[in-house]
Amino acid sequence: MIKKSKKIILAGLTSAIAAAYLFGSFAQAKDASDTKYVPSTAKEKLEAYIKFTQILNVIESQYVDDINTTDLVDKALKGLLVNLDAHSTFMDTKAYKDLNVQTKGEFGGLGISIGMKDGALTVIAPIDGTPAFKAGVKAGDIILKIDEVATIGMNIDESVKLMRGKPKTSLVLTIIREKEPKPLKIKIVRDIIKIQSVYVKTIEERLLYIHITSFDQKVVEGIKKAMKDNHTTQGLILDLRNNPGGLLDQAVGVVDLFVEEGAIVSQKGKQKTENMSYDAHKANTNTNTPIVVLVNGGSASASEIVAGALQDFNRSIVIGEKTFGKGSVQVVMPIGHNEALKLTVARYYLPSGRTIQALGVTPDIIVHIGKIDYIEDPVLLKEKDLKKHLEGELAKIDFNTTKPKDSNLSVDSNGTIVNDTIITEDQLYKDTQLKSAVDILKALIITNKGRK
Q: Which residues are marked as active site?
């Protein structure tokens, strides 16, 4: 008997990382079959069951290698679930045990979110600061091999098992990258993944920049603290680029901070018990601060809910590139004590009624990643340049003798002291999407638009 005794609901993506909130697998899938659904009659069901049993008997008796009925049924179930969609899967005893390890214990991982795109195992995003990020893995990389095992025909769960392992052990990913003439081999050393989900910086003192790398249980509190600590801010940038998702309640909570009323997101399934709506509340809501949201192809699930909901409520301007398009709900249903089904049971819908699944969120303004080249003012040196230059040189000299005491200070490759809590003009020009977000946010502030 299948018992729906334990429901695990995520708005996140499968990642080869040691974080319990990022274990939901994902892939781009069609919303519905091309053919109209017609329920099977009792006779058709019986004939189908008989056909299935006959084929099992033929394979068991005549297949070249010995195989028993139990193994055949397990293989058939795995194939059945995979052909429904890439989110659903049958978990045998080993797979179910691995899931429990992943959600309850610690293990070594790489720090990447992966999915199926056009039938290929694809990196959706490396998580900042993780082994994969440091090794140079990039969003959009197609994984050909994990060590010497080819990924052709491999599902997401199988690939995650191969990439997970003991900390300090290594593996090699063979990848295809756009504009690279031949496959690249990247060696990565596994580690326990500890993710800082919220990074806070300021831009020109009056703008607040919050980068959310994943939706763990501390995101809402992190944003609240940032807003409180920077209460004089005139505008907010939420950077959700390469955010694979995470906990649904945190995504809802983030939107609720800026929206007073209405359904933030709803989910609808075949069973009435799966039909739910998550509404905004008026208490402690910030409706005045203009918001710009940054997204890209690595923004998925919970990130898409936040970006799409704020867009639908006309509470923010969304900038960047089209998001990944993962808007379905999976639950884990134990079968006995040792096996389980992970089954897609519903889809998410944004306030306007549109779905995310396979469609993603299209930004209000499309801006591709890149940098901006600019020409310096041809006018000769100005007083401020002399002062700045002098201060810079003195800072270099001082640093050589005394290291900065402020924990927020670091040193760049040129030996210049940098404050990690501030985004500089030079950094903005290296990120066209962020530069566009800043410019648009300034326009919102000036024109008093983007406020409810």
A: 301, 312, 326
The torsion angles phi and psi of 69, rounded to 5 degrees, stand at: -65, -40
At a CB cut-off of 8 Å and minimum separation 6, what does 304 contact?
Answer: 245, 295, 323, 324, 325, 326, 327, 356, 360, 361
pLDDT per position as a tens digit, 44-72:
999 999 999 999 999 999 999 999 999 99
Amino acid in the structure at residue 153: G
309 CB-near residues (< 8 Å, 6+ apart): 255, 259, 264, 265, 350, 351
Task: Give the SS3 label for residue 212.
Answer: strand
Percent of the chain with pLDDT over 70: 80
Q: Taking a C-beta distance cutoff of 8 angstroms, is the pair 320, 303 a contact?
A: no
User: Residues 317-371: pLDDT tens digits?
Assistant: 999 999 989 899 888 899 988 899 989 999 999 999 999 998 999 999 999 999 8
Give CA–CA dist 420/306, Å, rounded. Answer: 26
**CA 81 – CA 10 distance, rounded (Å):** 19
